[in-house]
Amino acid sequence: MRFMVIRKADAETEQGCMPSNELIAQMAAFNNELANAGVLIDGTGLQPSKEGARISFSNGQALVTDGPFTETKELVAGFTMIEVQDKAEAIEWMKRWPVLDGGGNAQLELRRLYELSDFEPGSGIADTHKVFEKITRQPQSCATYLTFDGRCREAFEFYAELLGGEINVMQTFAALPPEENNADEHGCAGVITDADRDKIMHACLTYGKGTLMGSDAMPGQYQQPQGFYQQLQIDDMQQAIRVFNALSEGGSVHMPFGETFWAEGFGMLVDAWGIPWMVNSGFKAPQ
Question: Are residues 43 and 111 in contact, defined by beta-carbon separation less than 8 angstroms?
Answer without folding.
Answer: no
